[in-house]
């Protein structure tokens, strides 16, 4: 991708994120102005606090830094559309279908990720099970747990060896 196309792509992405941010802030302030209750104040502080932390105090802007405001934004959206009562049972449950599909896809992806650590630790153990002494490894999370379960030892930070005692 050339630099001109990259600049345009970054501009479009930044514009999209800025538009979403303005929409979330507008939704928050509209809810506060319409309801004027303690719940609205709490939701407003929740969104503003997360937004200010993510935008001004965090060293990088990522989805992970904005994720804590997701429940508050979901509550605000539900409160916004709660005024229009659905006419049928399908109108209540049908919007939940995409969320259920996405949740299942995320669960499948998480299971596959866990299986990669399981398979890596199995291969690691098969490769080094006949070695004398302590087998050292580098890795974290599931890999660390599974390797430690079969007697391997986590190496220190920055060490790149399979040391033996």
Please explain how this structure is put together.
The chain is mainly alpha-helical. It has two domains: 1-84; 90-165, no CATH class. Helix content is 70%, strand content 2%. It is built from seven helices and two strands. The chain has helices at 3-35, 38-57, 63-66, 70-81, 89-93, 96-128, 142-149, and strands at 136-137, 153-154. The chain has a two-stranded parallel ribbon with strand order 1-2. Strand 1 (136-137), helix 7 (142-149) and strand 2 form a beta-alpha-beta unit. Helix 1 (3-35) packs across helix 4 (70-81).
SSE inventory with pairings:
Layout: H1 3-35, H2 38-57, H3 63-66, H4 70-81, H5 89-93, H6 96-128, E1 136-137, H7 142-149, E2 153-154
Parallel strand pairs: 1-2
Helix pairs in contact: 1-2, 1-4, 2-4, 6-7
